[in-house]
């Protein structure tokens, strides 16, 4: 019997392929992504990860299984503490301090994605929260591995590439997949259907986030 994760990835493979083909990711792999686009991305990603960590913390609070509590609480910590170190390295390169980052408004794509995650965290049962959070882990690992296989050693975005292609991140993704599959296996069919809906929406928002960064989209009015 297929697992939830295998089924979800198969259903949404076209979305992943479209994300991989985005100019942002193609040019990042080639080392020629414009600094303005990456700066926009890294600032918005820092804002996104705060909300992502909050959503995972809510998931930990809703969990009954001690292992699941540890899984979601640990993932929340990683999102806020570990990845922040990567952001701060790039902020230093761009001459940004915490106040400058805080002063920049969320882009429409970031606002949409964080709003979706937090609404899901507070309104939906734990399996649906897990499914909504999973693409952020999984897509980044797959994109990181793909880019790592072709990127030159002197790629200016090597720190970003190495983070998401690394063994530590891969292990975190595997743990999140396993937890999500366990929750789906114990869920009723309507909940599993809601999980698939949340997974697909998150995949769409991953695409939107990178596309928005490349085009440096802001609020139209």
From TrEMBL:
Residues 23-215 form the Thiaminase-2/PQQC domain. It holds the Pfam family TENA_THI-4. It comes from Lichenibacterium ramalinae. It comes from the Bacteria. Gene3D superfamilies: Heme oxygenase-like (1.20.910.10). One of its GO terms (cellular component) is cytosol. PANTHER family: BIFUNCTIONAL TH2 PROTEIN (PTHR43198), SI:CH1073-67J19.1-RELATED (PTHR43198:SF2). This is Thiaminase II. SUPFAM superfamilies: Heme oxygenase-like.
